[in-house]
Structures are given as C-alpha cells and as structure tokens.
Amino acid sequence: MHITRLNIQRVRNLEAVALQELQPFNVFYGANGSGKTSVLEAIHLLATGRSFRTHMPKHYIQQSKPDAIVFAQSPSDKIGMQKLISGEQTIKLNGDNIATQGQLARLLPLQLIDPLSTDIIDHGAKPRRQLLDWLMFHVEPDFYHTWQYYSRALKQRNSLLKSQRNLSLQDLEPWNQMLSQYGEILHQQRLMIVEQWQQYLAEDLQHLLPDLEIKLDYQAGFHSEQGLLNDLISHHQKDFDRRYTEYGPHRADLRLKTPMGDADVVLSRGQKKLLIIALKLSQIAMLHACDKETVVLLDDLTAELDLTAQQRLIGRLSQLGSQVFITTLDHEAVQTHLHDLSISYQLFKVENGEVRLVTQ
To answer: Does one domain contain both 244 and 215?
Structure first.
C-alpha cells in the first residue's frame, strides 16, 4: 500500500502530526533534533511494531504519556497502532483488531535505507540473516509458517536443554525430528531465493558500483551435505554442555564475497554504504516483480552520498514504484534531483515537533 494520509501522536517530540495527500516522494527537512527522523520512526513502528532507533517504548513515547499512536490510510485500507509504555500494543486493520504484526507487515512492506549505517556488512551474521528473511517473508509464501514451526521447535528444544541436566538423546528425539524437518525446508527456500536475489543484485550493482563484483554466499548454519538431523544427533553432547542448539537455520549467514575476499574486509566505508543500498534496492526490485510496492524510509539522504549517487538512488526508487519518505538537511539538493527526474513530491518543514507543508 501507498500511504495517502498519516497521523502521528506522542512519538518523541511529535505531539500531533496530520499529513494528507502524500505523494510518491515526501521530503522532510529541518535542523538536527527538529523531529524529522521521528516521522520515519513512526512509520517504521506502524509497519514492524518496533522502532529502528531503540528497543524501549519509553524512549520513543513522549515523556509522562502512556502511549503513542500511529495511523495511516491508503486508497483501499486503514491501519493503526497504539503502543503502550509497557510494550503492549493494539493493531487495527480497517477498524478491526488483528492479532499479529505480520498482517501489517505484509500489507506495508517497508525498507529503511540509512546511508550512515554499515551494520549489515560489519556486525556479524544476525543483520544479514534478518535482511534475507525480510525478503523471504515477502516473496516466499510458505516461509512465514515454516519459520514459525521451526522457531517453536527450537524454543522447546532449548528450553529442555536449559531446564534438565540429565538429558538423553532419546529425550530430544521428537524435537530433533521436528527441527530437522522444518529446518531443511527453510534451507531449501533460502537457497532458492538467494539464487534469484543474486540476479537482481547484479543489476543494481551495475548502477552504483559498476566495477565491483559481489557474490551472495549463503551458509546454512549446519552441514547441509549430511543433513540437519545428523548434526543434531552427532553433536548433542555439545548442546548438552552449552545448553542451547548449536546447528540449524537460526545460525545461518549470508556472506558477501568479492574476488579479493570478504566485503567487510576489503571494501572501503563508501563502498560498503553503496553495497548496502544495492542490496536493499535489489530486494525492492524482487518485490516489484511480484507486484508488491515497497515503502522506503530514506534517512539523511545527503549526509554521505555524492550528488550522482543521490540522483541514481532516487531515480531507481521511482522506477521501482516505491513510495519514499526522505529526511535531509539539504532540501534544495533533493528538490533539484526530483525536478530533474520529473517526480511528484511534497515538501515538509519540521521545526520543534511541528510538521508543516511547504507550498512549492
């Protein structure tokens, strides 16, 4: 869905914000601390149930207030969320309460592009695995349910490992069977999607890093040749000792390889930023090929990207049918790009938590 109307209440310094007639591109500018990134944070909260800046609701809910509310409307749907200081939440779709965040996530595919961050490349397997699973969630219909069954089995197995010291292999047998069954399915799903993703990535690398070759190297998290069940049985003593499950898709990684070595070792900081953008653009392209439009949060666009990279990124997002929310200190540069590319947009000035439409 593309958002035509957005209401935000009590998110950081945004007391009450009401935005209407939102366009394919929406630009928010203002001084540091004015609240422009909080607009993106609110959209992220609505789509995912969490902030990209903090794990603690008390840090984004206004001080001394019990809750924060975000509401969005498209031509066909209305979605809303109330987040309590306790972390509990109420989610509504077209006026009806819904049970899981996944329903909103499917309706509002969201990508955050932060040119300042290189966490996906530099900070271990977890952010890369999350990036892959975001794509899996949106393009592989059976992934979510398979992952749910796998996660439940993993939780039960780990709980057993932690709670009992005199376990036998027989005690673990039912969980080994379930974990291996769904783990093998997850592995095959991921292999298939990574192969497709590689083709889309090559195309976006040509625009942003034409001299760089990147290979996506998916590592299963277990010895795939022997199978997950064999690992669970053969290494059960290690699991007993460590009291958690060592092998499985929950330990998978997606390594980024260049002909010179791993990307985290050989690429410059600037190259890493462009690679992260290419990874996310290629994911958006895969969703676009499945007739799914992505909402993109583009924080601090002009901070560390040169003018050529800025224009290529904006042009590509427009080509992919994305709705984009941009924050910047240099709105004139962004406006120039949008005018040159003939892209419709709205311009908003953010000051002390107030968001005002600027007439162009």
So the answer is: yes
- What number is the average pLDDT over the span 289-308? 92
pLDDT digits (tens, 9 = 90+) for 318-344: 999 999 999 999 999 999 999 999 999
Strand, coil or helix: what is 213? coil
* Domain count along the chain: 2
Does residue 22 lie within any of the structural domains? yes
- Does residue 357 belong to any structural domain of this protein? yes
Neighbouring CB atoms inside 10 A of 106's CB total 14
Find, among 14, 31, 11, 43, the residue nearest to 324 by Cα.
43
pLDDT tens-place string over residues 209-266: 999 999 999 999 999 999 999 999 999 999 999 999 999 999 999 999 999 999 999 9
Angle at 130 between CA 124 and CA 134, to 5 degrees: 155
Task: Quote the tokens at residue 275.
Answer: 């690679």
Give 228's contacts (C-beta < 8 A, 6+ positions apart).
179, 180, 183, 184, 187, 222, 247, 248
Helix pair angle (125-139, 169-208), 10° resolution: 80
Q: Is 297 helix (H, G, I), strand (E, B) or coil?
A: strand
**Residue finishing a domain among 252, 276, 292:** 292
Question: Is residue 50 domain-shared with residue 76, that is, in the same domain?
Answer: yes
How is residue 148 written in tokens? 């749910």
Give the CATH number, domain containing residue 58: 3.40.50.300
